Amino acid sequence: MFQLLLVVCAAFAAALGEGDNFYPGVFSRPHYGSVVSSDDSGYRIVGGSQIDIAQAPHQVSLQSRGGHICGGSIIASSWVLTAAHCTDGASVSNLKVRVGSSQHASGGTLIAVSRIVQHTKYNSRTIDYDFSLLQLKKAIKLGNTSKVIKLPEQNESTADGTSCEVTGWGNTQNVNESRQNLRSARVPVVNQQDCNRSYSLYGGVTDRMICAGLQEGGKDACQGDSGGPLVANGKLVGVVSWGLGCAQPNYPGVYSRVAAVRDWIRSNSGV
Fold first, then answer.
1. What element of type H or E holds 127?
2. Which residue has the higher pLDDT, 266 or 44?
3. If you average pLDDT over residues 7-14, what whole number do you get?
4. Which of 76, 117, 129, 168 could be stapled to 271 by a disulfide with Cβ–Cβ 3.0 to 4.6 Å?
């Protein structure tokens, strides 16, 4: 989920005017404005498998100008949690979410966003506090393909090695895999100190971050998965945020830790 190649960084920086906001070689999933067209050859989970939306009914596609830009999670019938780097600088009038579909480009229901509540401490350089709440103009009709995901309590811990599921429509790094359908991969939680050492050259990780991935690499989120869910034991423990490359050995995916901002979510959404 983190194809952080410098050439990609340069392309996005040129489009967004934010070239000095990131550590060299490190990049979050695509920002607002980096629209993924329905015929793009990338944008899928790496090392995962295709699933039906009923297997991850909390998953939504955040859309702008008709195209998928990020993932998100249903936390209430009128609220979605995504990443701040997906909404930073966005106009609410351009944003919609597609719910209840295995495909980001069709099916389900498109619902307009009425309000963005971006975390006031979000730092686009360190990618800290990478959270945004989206209030929808109308409530989601909940059912088998659209369900609310449970949230952890404030500062609730997730043990090292816990198996997590990450889902999305991000880069698969495999042209033979579907370009349209939702995909899933399972990755274990990585010890925070070990993850911090891995990313020490890039500023390390903060207490608002949680890492998950295989030491040998091969499974990960990638560009286009940003803002999407990392789920463990039926709870939303992380939001796809950033990393070095996609599925690289010794560089796990870095997710925004939901338990670190549970009180903020409650105070701003009532959820």
1. none
2. 266
3. 29
4. 76
